[in-house]
Amino acid sequence: MARPERDPVREATERLLAVRRLEQELLALARRARRKAPELHGWLTIEQFAVLDYLRASNGVVVDQLSAELDGYPAVIGRLVATLESKGLIERVTESEGPGDVVLRLTEAGEELAVEVHRSRRQAVTERVHDWTLEDVTTLTRLLAGYNRGRPPRPRG
């Protein structure tokens, strides 16, 4: 059986339309995340929660590493850190006597809030995909992970 001929113009047009649709869906996702943030995060902004979440996962980091990991400008990350510090959610801990050994860590209150927000977010996502198959949830997770890393997703199998 003969394979149909490739039409590069049609493929390029379809890809452009698909990317446009993806862009629209990502924007809708971002808008929904911002709209739901107060409900899920309480008084925390999404950016503040990202700091707490990263500190929880890493068990503490220096400020420069936090800026790099969150793709944030150091001044912006500094303001987020200052706000969270003033609320008693994170603290600066000196690891040793050397320069640059000050590490940001969650306080007990920060850990408790991060756990509470994670629970709230997990419940919201679970409700959103409650009627999806496990394969659908896994596929979306794999595709988003590839998108966020800036690499194509690996084929399954």
Query: What overall form do the CA principal axes indicate?
Result: elongated
Name given to the CATH architecture of the domain at 42-146: Orthogonal Bundle
- Rounded mean pLDDT is 89
Helix-strand pattern: HHHHEEHH
CATH class of the domain at 42-146: Mainly Alpha
Q: What portion of residues belong to β-strands?
A: 5-15%
Helicity level: 55-70%
Distance between the amino and carboxyl termini: 26 Å
What's the CATH topology label of the domain at 42-146?
Arc Repressor Mutant, subunit A
Low-confidence stretches: none
GO molecular function, one term: DNA-binding transcription factor activity
Protein name: MarR family transcriptional regulator
Domain HTH marR-type: 19-149
Organism: Nocardioides euryhalodurans
Q: What descriptive keywords fit this protein?
A:
157 residues, mainly alpha, Arc Repressor Mutant, subunit A, two-stranded antiparallel ribbon, 2 strands, elongated, HTH_MarR-typ
Question: Mind explaining what this structure looks like?
Answer:
- This protein is mainly α.
- It has a domain of 105 residues: Orthogonal Bundle (Arc Repressor Mutant, subunit A), CATH 1.10.10.
- It is 66% helix and 6% strand.
- It has a two-stranded antiparallel ribbon with strand order 1-2.
- A hairpin with a 7-residue loop joins strand 1 and strand 2.
- The longest helix has 34 residues.
- The mean pLDDT is 89.
